[in-house]
Each structure stands twice: as C-alpha cells, then as structure tokens.
Specification:
469 residues; alpha/beta; Aspartate Aminotransferase, domain 2; five-stranded antiparallel sheet; 16 strands; pyridoxal phosphate; Aminotrans_3; PyrdxlP-dep_Trfase_major; pyridoxal phosphate binding
Length: 469
Amino acid sequence: KIGLLEYFDFMEPSLAVTSSHVPKSCFLHYQLSPVKLVRGYRQYLLSDEGVRYLDCANTVAHVGHCHPKIVEAGLKYFEQVTIPVDETGFYKKYCDELTKDLPPSFDTVLFVASGSESNDLAIQMAQKYVGAEDVVSVAGSFYGDVSFSNFVSSKTSKDQRLVPKSWVHNIPCPETCRKWTLDKNKAGEFYAQQGIKQMKDLINKGKKISCFITEPILTTCGVVVPPSGWLCILANYVSSIKGLMIMDETNTGLGRTGSSMWGFQSSGICPDIITVGKPLASGYPVAAVITSSAIFQALGMDKNNFYPSPLSTMIGMCTLDVIKEENLLHQAKVIGKLILDKLLILKEKYYTIGDVRGVGMIIGVEIVHDRRQLDLRPYPKMAQEIVYGMKENKIIISTEGEHKNVLIMLPSLIFTEEEVDLLISSFDSVFCALHQIEDIPFEKYRRIIIENVIAANKLKVPLLSDDVD
C-alpha cells in the first residue's frame, strides 16, 4: 500500500550488489540459493517474489516484525526529535520499567546501538573497575564483532582467524549430548571445576581476571542448557577472586525463557553487569548495559554519551508494553514446551536427531550420524540439508554450535499453536525425505553398548563417541 514493493522493483539485483561491494568472507544465510526479503509482519517475512516465510531464526524481532503498536510509536516520535537528549520523563520511566525485576543495585542503564557494543562496553567497565585485563568466556561463544567483544568471542576469532589475544581465555562449553558417560547430576560440578582449574592456573601465572562473560543459556554454542550448578559454582568463584560476572541476555532475556524476565534469574545467581541487544526494541537498533553506578563510574566516561533518543526510548517502551499486555512470558513458556514436546516425538522417529533441548522459545536440535549406534559425531552436512529443506517448505531456521550441526530456533514470542503445527509437520517431511527410517533390532547394537559402558567405567573422564569408536 505504501509502494515498498514498487521501490524494490527499481533496486539493482541484490546479488550483483553483494558480489561487487561485500567481501566474499561475508556469507549469506542461504548462500546456495539466496532469498531477497522485502518486508515482514508478525512472525512472517515476505520475499520479493511474494513468497511468505515463517521466521524462526531472526531473534531480534522479539515481539514479531512490524508490530502495529511499535510501528505507530516509531512513526509518531520520528516526526519529533530523533537525537539523544538529556534525561526526560520518558527516559526515566523506561529505565525504571527495564530494571523493575532486578535488584536495586542495578541503578544505571547505558544505551548503545547493538549487542556487540553493549558487550564491548561491559568488558571495558569490568577491566577498569577491577583493574585487570584478562577476560574469561566460554569456548564456542559469540559476544559481538567489534573490538573487545570480537576477540572474546572464540566463535568469531576462529572463523575470522584472528590472532589470539593473551588476555582472552576460554573455558569448556558444558555440553552433555556427546558426553553420554558423564553422570548428568554431576555434569555441572565437573565442568565448573574444569573452568575453575583454568582460572587458578592463570592466577598462578600472575594473571588477574577482570570478568567472566557468558549467556545463561549458551545459544551460539548450540543451545546448550548448562547442567545444574555450573553457573552458580563459577559465579561464586569469580566473585571470590574479585572479578565481575557479565551476563549476556541478548538471546535469553525479556521473557524468552518463559519463566522470568531475565534468563539468569532461574539459576540462583546475580551478575554484576547485564547486557542486552536489539531484541530490546524488537529489532530497532537499541541495546543496553545495566549495572551499578559504582561500576560505571570506574569507566570515567560521561553518561551523556549513552542517552537514547526519544524515538529509541518509545520503541523500547512499546516492546516492554507488548510483552506485558500480550502475556508473552506465559506464551513463551507454553508454546516453547509444545515445540520441545513435539520435537521429542520426532527424535524417537529419526535416528539422526541426537538431542532436543531448550528453554521457552530457545530451542536446539542436534544432528548426529546415528543415535541408535551411539554414533553421536556431529553431522553438519545433514543439518545444512535440513535448513535448505525447511526453506523449500517456507520456514527459516539456522544452525549453530562448534560444528554447525545444531538446528537453532529462536522465534518471536508471538508464535502460536498454528505455527508450531506448521513447523513440526515441515520438520517431519524434511527428515523423512532426507533418510529412510529403518526398524533395526536393538540386539544388533547391544554388544556395542555393553562394550562402551564397560570401557567408560574403567576411566575417570567422560568419553566422546569418537573415543569409543
């Protein structure tokens, strides 16, 4: 109605522009058969060819694409003032609303434009406050692609072949899918002690740790839900050595877990700094660092540098209003559980599904070679084929994890049962098309299982399926 499609008709072909101006190292989401998206509404995206796709991958559209209330607020305030200004009633109200579920110590909110910037700022604050440089993060994680956050993200450091920084240290990701010999009740303690040992070794070498940065649920590691106790044990240790805890809530906050406003709140810990990216304004470039005034003051910067524009403030406020008015925490809990339950049924049907895991609207499906044979080696080729198969069914998903073998879904919180049925039926048809389901007698693999268990009992450390092979 407003001529957007007509405008796109006059644009240069996107692929030609991409090949001319974008480095080849920057891959498209569908590199083999790109999709040109021209608009979005609620949980759907529309291509230039008029094809409608169900969006299960774009995490920043927290309450859906182009929510009417957010669009109305944006248009209204875009006609007024768009530059950052001194504190206003709207600014204070927004900060109060954003921090109302947090302890009183979180009295300072600093606004930036992206999650990358928020993590970058948080790391700098921690280093200044503690008076130390070294940063600890989780292997395979992603915290941004600017300056400090880029080097701390082992995912981008590896992908971009960055020269490792001596002040960046990675502790093991607490995944349990392929650690099948590890007692799940002891996994949290096991991984936490591994991380603590690494930190103690650093301290013995004269290093001083400024902070530990992590997500409450490790989304870019492949939706790894940390085993019980892991986060709490590490947080207590970091506190004991006077380091700070930074919690990246970009993919887990604002009710996405379905149980609380912030993902860390179900873990029994309280971080020193919270960061959140563009989901804060459902895709509009607003992000935030939430901390105490004491930690911020150590940075030595003027708070005026971090005021949002009234436009940003109102879009952020509207996002919080929609979450509350549409009861999206409850919806994330109910719909998320429904997706997980239906995926678990598919897991019993398809042996390449090694694990189904997640919390609320944070869902991961790990693709392996053959779960029946305990061959839990990552199967990224199959995962990629599933992504393209789902694309043919007009559903957008993505892959994450160290081996890119985990199908990841972080849809908007407005997902309904209708979309769940569409998602699951599409998964079913794609899996069925990609491999033949065979009823192989369990006895065929009984000897393998027994031998693996005997071998595991003789060792002190958990085995990968690769080690057993």
